[in-house]
Amino acid sequence: MTLTRWAPVALATVLAIVLTAAAPAVGPRGGPLDGFTIGHLPARIGAEASTADFTYEWEGVSFTSRAWEQAKDGGGFQVLLQVLVLRGEELTDLSAVRAFLARYHERDPEAWELEDFDNSGTPGLYGGNEAFWSPDEGVAVEVRDPFGLLGEEELLATARGVGRQNPA
User: Fold this and answer.
1) Per the domain annotation, does 9 fall within a domain?
2) Which of 17, 44, 66, 115 is the most buried (most CB within 10 A)?
């Protein structure tokens, strides 16, 4: 075969490899969020779920949030999942993050039952419908299943799937 016959085949092969490697692993609803990458989404977060990103501040802590919601039978929407990145001076360690989130979610800190979990070497806490950890001083990440629709296994798999966007 001549070079002109092989050139289109070679070009198509190279493009297929490059485009496949560049495709996000979890689709357009995962991916980057304020310095982190959402690398796992539960199977229940399907094509019918819509996403919305929000930024806001509460008590000197800034939030960047992504929420997945789905239409409910009979009208309205229900949030299936939230991933939040929190940044603020108060968030010095996991204990401080826990205290802050207890206030933010209006929880009794003494009655809030949480268990330890490991997020790629970073200690975290989870319980009920949320998991959170503090990867660096001044930063926290929280994953929430606000209505308990996804279950603990998917909650923790999603939390463990959130990592730094460009780790050094």
Assistant:
1) no
2) 66
Q: List phi, psi (to 5°) of 118.
A: -100, 125
Tokens found for residue 55: 């930024």
And the tokens for 101? Answer: 């989130």
Closest CA relative to residue 42, chosen from 75, 76, 2, 70: 70
Residue 87: give the domain boundaries.
Answer: 28-164
Residue 38 has pLDDT above 70, yes or no: yes
Whether 5 is covered by a domain: the verdict is no
- What pTM, to 2 d.p., does this model score? 0.81
When divided into structural domains, the chain yields a total of 1
Q: What is the C-alpha to C-alpha distance for residues 151 and 118, in angstroms, rounded to an integer?
A: 18
| Cα 87 to chain centroid, rounded | 15
Whose structure tokens read 């209006």?
A: 106
